Amino acid sequence: MRITLLGTAAGGGVPQWNCNCAVCHEARRASGRVTPRTQSSVALSADGRSWFLLNASPDIRQQIEGCACLRPPAGKKRGSPIHGVLLTNADLDHTLGLFLLREGERLTVHAATAVRQSLAKGLSVGSTLDCFCGVEWVQPPAKLSPLLRRDGSSSGLLYQAVALGGKPPRFFKRRAGSTLGHVVGYRIVDQKTGGRLLFLLDVAALDKQVQRLLPECDALLFDGTFWTNNEMKRRGVGALTAAQMGHVPISGPGGSLKALAALQPKPKIYTHINNTNPILVEDSPEHAAVLAAGCLVGCDGMEIVI
Q1: Domain count of the fold of the chain
Q2: pLDDT band at 139 (very low <50, low <70, confident <90, very high)
Q3: 110, 87 in Cβ contact below 8 A?
Q4: What was the pLDDT predicted at 130?
Q5: In principle, which of 16, 23, 144, 209 could form an S-S bond with 158, CB 3.0–4.6 Å?
Q6: DSSP secondary-structure letter at 153?
Q7: Cα 86 from Cα 111, distance rounded (Å)
Q8: What is the average per-residue pLDDT within 29-43?
Q9: Would you give the end-to-end CA distance of the chain in angstroms?
Q10: What is the domain range of residue 196?
Q11: Average pLDDT of the chain?
Q12: Nearest residue to 76 (alpha-carbon basis) of 53, 104, 56
Protein backbone atom coordinates (compact mmCIF):
# COMPACT_ATOMS: atom_id res chain seq x y z
CA MET A 1 0.00 0.00 0.00
CA ARG A 2 1.26 3.44 -0.97
CA ILE A 3 0.18 6.28 1.30
CA THR A 4 0.79 9.94 0.46
CA LEU A 5 0.05 12.76 2.88
CA LEU A 6 -1.34 15.44 0.58
CA GLY A 7 -2.02 17.93 3.36
CA THR A 8 -1.21 17.79 7.07
CA ALA A 9 -2.67 20.96 8.61
CA ALA A 10 -5.97 21.39 10.41
CA GLY A 11 -8.62 23.83 9.14
CA GLY A 12 -7.11 27.02 7.74
CA GLY A 13 -3.73 25.55 6.86
CA VAL A 14 -0.33 26.90 7.88
CA PRO A 15 -0.10 29.84 7.81
CA GLN A 16 -3.80 30.55 8.23
CA TRP A 17 -4.93 33.50 6.11
CA ASN A 18 -6.00 35.71 9.04
CA CYS A 19 -3.63 34.48 11.74
CA ASN A 20 -0.39 36.05 12.89
CA CYS A 21 0.33 33.77 15.85
CA ALA A 22 3.96 32.87 16.46
CA VAL A 23 3.80 29.77 14.24
CA CYS A 24 2.05 31.47 11.32
CA HIS A 25 4.39 34.46 11.58
CA GLU A 26 7.39 32.13 11.40
CA ALA A 27 5.92 30.29 8.40
CA ARG A 28 5.53 33.58 6.51
CA ARG A 29 9.11 34.57 7.33
CA ALA A 30 10.26 31.52 5.34
CA SER A 31 13.08 31.00 7.82
CA GLY A 32 12.92 27.23 7.46
CA ARG A 33 11.76 26.75 11.05
CA VAL A 34 8.10 26.23 10.04
CA THR A 35 7.16 24.53 6.76
CA PRO A 36 3.84 25.73 5.29
CA ARG A 37 1.14 23.07 5.07
CA THR A 38 -2.17 22.63 3.27
CA GLN A 39 -5.30 21.26 4.91
CA SER A 40 -5.47 17.60 5.83
CA SER A 41 -6.03 14.95 3.15
CA VAL A 42 -4.41 11.61 2.31
CA ALA A 43 -4.19 9.54 -0.88
CA LEU A 44 -3.68 5.77 -0.85
CA SER A 45 -3.43 2.95 -3.37
CA ALA A 46 -2.65 -0.76 -3.49
CA ASP A 47 -1.32 -0.72 -7.06
CA GLY A 48 -0.19 2.87 -7.73
CA ARG A 49 -2.91 3.28 -10.38
CA SER A 50 -6.25 3.36 -8.55
CA TRP A 51 -6.29 5.93 -5.75
CA PHE A 52 -8.63 6.82 -2.91
CA LEU A 53 -8.74 9.99 -0.84
CA LEU A 54 -9.12 10.12 2.92
CA ASN A 55 -11.07 13.39 3.17
CA ALA A 56 -11.28 16.08 0.49
CA SER A 57 -9.79 19.32 1.76
CA PRO A 58 -10.44 22.80 0.36
CA ASP A 59 -6.87 22.60 -1.01
CA ILE A 60 -7.53 19.44 -3.04
CA ARG A 61 -6.88 21.00 -6.48
CA GLN A 62 -3.45 22.23 -5.38
CA GLN A 63 -2.74 18.86 -3.76
CA ILE A 64 -3.66 16.89 -6.89
CA GLU A 65 -1.46 19.12 -9.05
CA GLY A 66 1.41 18.55 -6.62
CA CYS A 67 1.11 14.76 -6.78
CA ALA A 68 1.82 13.33 -10.24
CA CYS A 69 0.05 10.02 -9.54
CA LEU A 70 -3.27 11.84 -9.05
CA ARG A 71 -3.19 13.85 -12.28
CA PRO A 72 -5.21 12.92 -15.41
CA PRO A 73 -3.88 9.78 -17.16
CA ALA A 74 -1.41 10.40 -19.99
CA GLY A 75 -2.95 10.19 -23.44
CA LYS A 76 -6.48 11.06 -22.28
CA LYS A 77 -8.27 14.37 -22.68
CA ARG A 78 -9.89 14.00 -19.26
CA GLY A 79 -10.00 11.50 -16.45
CA SER A 80 -8.79 10.83 -12.94
CA PRO A 81 -7.19 7.89 -11.11
CA ILE A 82 -9.21 8.88 -7.99
CA HIS A 83 -11.91 6.23 -7.44
CA GLY A 84 -13.52 7.49 -4.26
CA VAL A 85 -13.38 9.67 -1.16
CA LEU A 86 -13.59 8.31 2.39
CA LEU A 87 -14.86 10.92 4.83
CA THR A 88 -14.07 10.89 8.54
CA ASN A 89 -16.66 13.55 9.38
CA ALA A 90 -18.54 16.48 7.84
CA ASP A 91 -16.18 19.27 8.94
CA LEU A 92 -15.58 21.91 6.29
CA ASP A 93 -11.83 21.26 6.11
CA HIS A 94 -12.58 17.62 5.23
CA THR A 95 -15.45 18.07 2.78
CA LEU A 96 -15.31 21.37 0.84
CA GLY A 97 -13.00 19.66 -1.66
CA LEU A 98 -15.97 17.57 -2.81
CA PHE A 99 -17.31 20.65 -4.60
CA LEU A 100 -13.96 21.05 -6.39
CA LEU A 101 -14.22 17.50 -7.78
CA ARG A 102 -17.55 18.25 -9.49
CA GLU A 103 -16.12 18.37 -13.05
CA GLY A 104 -15.18 14.69 -13.05
CA GLU A 105 -16.98 11.38 -13.30
CA ARG A 106 -19.73 10.43 -10.87
CA LEU A 107 -18.20 10.82 -7.43
CA THR A 108 -18.20 7.94 -4.97
CA VAL A 109 -18.23 9.16 -1.38
CA HIS A 110 -17.95 6.81 1.60
CA ALA A 111 -19.65 8.50 4.55
CA ALA A 112 -21.43 7.38 7.71
CA THR A 113 -25.16 8.11 7.86
CA ALA A 114 -24.81 11.02 10.31
CA VAL A 115 -22.06 12.55 8.18
CA ARG A 116 -24.17 12.29 5.04
CA GLN A 117 -27.17 13.87 6.79
CA SER A 118 -25.07 16.79 8.00
CA LEU A 119 -23.74 17.39 4.50
CA ALA A 120 -27.18 17.07 2.91
CA LYS A 121 -29.12 19.27 5.33
CA GLY A 122 -26.35 21.65 6.29
CA LEU A 123 -24.47 22.19 3.01
CA SER A 124 -26.72 20.65 0.31
CA VAL A 125 -23.74 18.64 -0.92
CA GLY A 126 -25.73 15.88 -2.61
CA SER A 127 -28.21 18.11 -4.42
CA THR A 128 -25.43 20.46 -5.55
CA LEU A 129 -23.21 17.67 -6.90
CA ASP A 130 -26.23 16.11 -8.64
CA CYS A 131 -26.27 19.23 -10.85
CA PHE A 132 -22.73 18.39 -11.98
CA CYS A 133 -21.09 14.95 -11.77
CA GLY A 134 -23.57 13.30 -9.41
CA VAL A 135 -22.65 11.42 -6.27
CA GLU A 136 -22.95 7.83 -5.13
CA TRP A 137 -23.03 7.51 -1.33
CA VAL A 138 -21.56 4.40 0.26
CA GLN A 139 -22.04 3.43 3.90
CA PRO A 140 -18.60 2.42 5.25
CA PRO A 141 -18.67 -1.13 6.64
CA ALA A 142 -18.27 -1.97 10.32
CA LYS A 143 -16.16 -5.02 9.38
CA LEU A 144 -13.27 -5.30 6.94
CA SER A 145 -14.73 -5.39 3.43
CA PRO A 146 -13.43 -4.82 -0.12
CA LEU A 147 -12.90 -1.20 -1.13
CA LEU A 148 -14.15 -1.11 -4.71
CA ARG A 149 -13.14 0.94 -7.72
CA ARG A 150 -15.70 2.97 -9.68
CA ASP A 151 -16.50 -0.01 -11.94
CA GLY A 152 -17.12 -2.32 -8.97
CA SER A 153 -13.83 -4.23 -9.27
CA SER A 154 -11.51 -4.84 -6.34
CA SER A 155 -8.91 -2.19 -5.56
CA GLY A 156 -6.76 -4.63 -3.61
CA LEU A 157 -7.67 -2.89 -0.36
CA LEU A 158 -9.98 -3.80 2.50
CA TYR A 159 -11.48 -1.09 4.69
CA GLN A 160 -13.48 -0.67 7.85
CA ALA A 161 -14.96 2.36 9.62
CA VAL A 162 -14.15 2.78 13.29
CA ALA A 163 -16.66 4.80 15.30
CA LEU A 164 -15.10 7.62 17.32
CA GLY A 165 -16.78 9.68 20.01
CA GLY A 166 -16.60 12.99 18.19
CA LYS A 167 -19.04 15.82 17.70
CA PRO A 168 -21.21 16.96 14.77
CA PRO A 169 -19.82 19.77 12.59
CA ARG A 170 -20.21 23.27 13.94
CA PHE A 171 -22.53 24.30 11.09
CA PHE A 172 -24.98 21.50 11.99
CA LYS A 173 -24.55 21.16 15.74
CA ARG A 174 -27.88 22.70 16.75
CA ARG A 175 -29.85 20.42 14.42
CA ALA A 176 -27.88 17.20 14.77
CA GLY A 177 -29.76 15.70 17.72
CA SER A 178 -27.66 12.67 18.66
CA THR A 179 -23.90 13.05 18.77
CA LEU A 180 -23.40 9.43 17.70
CA GLY A 181 -21.86 8.50 14.37
CA HIS A 182 -20.56 11.94 13.39
CA VAL A 183 -16.88 10.94 13.44
CA VAL A 184 -15.18 7.78 12.23
CA GLY A 185 -11.66 6.58 11.67
CA TYR A 186 -10.58 3.93 9.16
CA ARG A 187 -8.66 0.67 9.21
CA ILE A 188 -7.30 -0.15 5.75
CA VAL A 189 -5.54 -3.39 4.84
CA ASP A 190 -3.58 -4.27 1.70
CA GLN A 191 -4.82 -7.69 0.58
CA LYS A 192 -1.50 -8.60 -1.06
CA THR A 193 1.05 -7.42 1.49
CA GLY A 194 -1.10 -7.52 4.62
CA GLY A 195 0.01 -3.95 5.43
CA ARG A 196 -2.37 -2.24 7.87
CA LEU A 197 -3.06 1.49 8.07
CA LEU A 198 -4.92 3.08 10.96
CA PHE A 199 -6.25 6.58 10.26
CA LEU A 200 -7.58 8.37 13.34
CA LEU A 201 -8.35 12.08 13.15
CA ASP A 202 -10.68 14.01 15.47
CA VAL A 203 -9.96 11.69 18.38
CA ALA A 204 -11.91 13.12 21.30
CA ALA A 205 -10.57 10.69 23.92
CA LEU A 206 -8.14 7.81 24.30
CA ASP A 207 -10.91 5.42 25.25
CA LYS A 208 -10.62 1.64 25.46
CA GLN A 209 -11.52 1.14 21.80
CA VAL A 210 -8.85 3.54 20.55
CA GLN A 211 -6.22 2.06 22.85
CA ARG A 212 -7.12 -1.44 21.64
CA LEU A 213 -6.75 -0.41 18.00
CA LEU A 214 -3.45 1.45 18.28
CA PRO A 215 -1.15 -1.62 18.32
CA GLU A 216 -3.06 -3.30 15.47
CA CYS A 217 -1.44 -1.49 12.56
CA ASP A 218 1.77 -1.13 10.58
CA ALA A 219 1.36 2.61 10.05
CA LEU A 220 -0.55 5.12 12.14
CA LEU A 221 -1.83 8.55 11.14
CA PHE A 222 -3.10 10.21 14.31
CA ASP A 223 -4.81 13.41 15.45
CA GLY A 224 -2.12 16.02 16.06
CA THR A 225 -4.37 19.08 16.24
CA PHE A 226 -3.26 20.57 19.55
CA TRP A 227 -0.24 20.28 21.82
CA THR A 228 -2.12 21.40 24.95
CA ASN A 229 -5.77 21.52 25.92
CA ASN A 230 -5.83 25.33 26.33
CA GLU A 231 -3.59 26.10 23.35
CA MET A 232 -5.97 28.48 21.57
CA LYS A 233 -6.33 30.65 24.66
CA ARG A 234 -2.60 30.60 25.41
CA ARG A 235 -1.86 31.72 21.86
CA GLY A 236 -4.44 34.50 22.16
CA VAL A 237 -6.48 33.38 19.14
CA GLY A 238 -9.54 31.69 20.65
CA ALA A 239 -11.34 30.55 23.78
CA LEU A 240 -12.30 26.94 23.02
CA THR A 241 -10.26 24.10 24.48
CA ALA A 242 -9.05 21.05 22.57
CA ALA A 243 -11.63 18.94 24.43
CA GLN A 244 -14.44 21.30 23.47
CA MET A 245 -13.37 21.01 19.84
CA GLY A 246 -13.25 17.21 19.97
CA HIS A 247 -9.49 16.61 20.07
CA VAL A 248 -7.30 14.91 22.63
CA PRO A 249 -4.11 16.99 23.07
CA ILE A 250 -0.68 15.54 22.38
CA SER A 251 0.96 16.48 25.69
CA GLY A 252 0.02 16.03 29.33
CA PRO A 253 -0.94 13.03 31.49
CA GLY A 254 -3.95 12.16 29.34
CA GLY A 255 -2.34 13.18 26.06
CA SER A 256 -1.70 10.97 23.07
CA LEU A 257 2.11 11.15 23.02
CA LYS A 258 2.50 8.85 26.01
CA ALA A 259 0.21 6.26 24.39
CA LEU A 260 1.94 6.44 21.01
CA ALA A 261 5.41 6.27 22.56
CA ALA A 262 4.50 2.90 24.10
CA LEU A 263 3.76 1.36 20.69
CA GLN A 264 6.27 -0.81 18.85
CA PRO A 265 8.41 1.01 16.26
CA LYS A 266 6.39 1.82 13.14
CA PRO A 267 5.55 4.96 11.23
CA LYS A 268 3.58 6.91 13.86
CA ILE A 269 2.72 10.24 12.32
CA TYR A 270 0.85 13.23 13.70
CA THR A 271 -1.30 14.98 11.11
CA HIS A 272 -4.20 17.46 11.04
CA ILE A 273 -1.95 19.88 12.96
CA ASN A 274 -3.41 23.23 13.95
CA ASN A 275 -1.52 26.39 13.01
CA THR A 276 -1.07 27.18 16.74
CA ASN A 277 0.70 23.90 17.54
CA PRO A 278 4.38 24.37 18.53
CA ILE A 279 5.37 20.97 17.12
CA LEU A 280 5.36 22.72 13.75
CA VAL A 281 8.44 24.70 14.81
CA GLU A 282 11.24 22.32 13.89
CA ASP A 283 13.73 23.50 16.52
CA SER A 284 11.17 23.65 19.35
CA PRO A 285 11.26 21.41 22.46
CA GLU A 286 7.77 20.19 21.56
CA HIS A 287 8.94 19.00 18.14
CA ALA A 288 11.91 17.30 19.79
CA ALA A 289 9.61 15.58 22.30
CA VAL A 290 7.55 14.08 19.45
CA LEU A 291 10.68 12.72 17.78
CA ALA A 292 12.04 11.39 21.08
CA ALA A 293 8.82 9.40 21.50
CA GLY A 294 9.45 7.65 18.18
CA CYS A 295 6.81 9.66 16.33
CA LEU A 296 6.94 12.00 13.35
CA VAL A 297 5.42 15.39 12.62
CA GLY A 298 3.57 14.99 9.33
CA CYS A 299 4.36 17.27 6.42
CA ASP A 300 2.83 17.61 2.98
CA GLY A 301 4.23 15.13 0.48
CA MET A 302 5.36 12.57 3.06
CA GLU A 303 5.04 9.01 1.71
CA ILE A 304 4.73 5.60 3.37
CA VAL A 305 4.78 2.13 1.85
CA ILE A 306 3.50 -0.87 3.84
Answers
A1: 1
A2: very high
A3: yes
A4: 97
A5: 144
A6: -
A7: 6
A8: 97
A9: 5
A10: 2-305
A11: 96
A12: 104
Q: With 70 as the cut, is the pLDDT of residue 242 above it?
A: yes
Q: Among positive and negative, which fits the CA dihedral 88, 296, 292, 214?
A: positive
Alpha carbon of 277 to those of 23, 132, 190: distances in Å? 7, 38, 33
Report the alpha-carbon distance of residue 52 to residue 150 in Å, rounded. 11
Q: How far is CA 76 from the centre of its chain?
A: 30
Which residue pairs from 77-82 have beta carbons closer than 8 angstroms and sit at least 24 positions apart in sequence?
Answer: 78/104, 79/105, 80/104, 80/105, 81/49, 81/50, 81/51, 82/43, 82/51, 82/52, 82/53
Q: Closest Cα partner for 299 from 289, 250, 290, 255?
A: 290
Distance CA 190, CA 257 (A): 27
Under the banding of pLDDT at 50, 70 and 90, the label for residue 178 is low
User: How many Cβ atoms from other residues are within 10 Å of residue 145's Cβ?
Assistant: 12
Q: Residue 278 sits in a domain of what CATH number?
A: 3.60.15.10
Q: What's 277-303 look like in SS3? A: CHHHCCCCHHHHHHHHCCCEECCCCCE
Distance CA 221, CA 201 (A): 8
Q: Global pTM?
A: 0.97
Q: In the predicted model, what is the mean pLDDT of residues 173-179?
A: 64
Q: Is 127 strand, coil or helix?
A: helix
Strand pairing report for 196-200 and 183-190: antiparallel
3-state secondary structure of 213: helix
pLDDT of residue 192: 97
The model's pLDDT over 249-302, given as tens digits with 9 standing for 90+, comes to 999 999 999 999 999 999 999 999 999 999 999 999 999 999 999 999 999 999
